[in-house]
Amino acid sequence: MTLEFVLKFLGWAFAGIPLAIFIGVSVNMIRGAGEDDELIMALSLIGLTFFLIGVITLLLVYLTDFI
Question: What distance lies between CA 5 and its chain's CA centroid?
């Protein structure tokens, strides 16, 4: 376990935990709004899907030797 790994882990934790909380609250709010109107729910889910695809792509690029 190197210092670089520990710093990367702490950096991701300090950035990822608040982001996860924000996304969780946003999803809960979108779910509440989606119960009122199906179009809002569909557009919100499309936006969340694109966001998750981007996050997964960035994680693959930065955390693996994929490219």
Answer: 22
pLDDT higher than 70, residue 67: no
Q: Rounded to an integer, what is the distance from CA 41 to the centroid of its chain?
A: 18
Looking at the predicted structure, is the pLDDT value of residue 47 above 90? no
Locus of tokens 């210092």: 3
- Residues 20 and 18: their CA atoms lie apart, in Å, by 5
- Tell me how far apart the alpha carbons of residues 20 and 26 are, in angstroms, rounded to a whole number: 10
What is the mean predicted confidence (pLDDT) over 58-66?
85
Token pair, residue 1, equals 């376990």
Distant-in-sequence, close-in-space partners of 58: CB < 8 Å, separation ≥ 6: none
d(Cα 20, Cα 17) in Å, to the nearest integer?
A: 5
Q: pTM above 0.85?
A: no
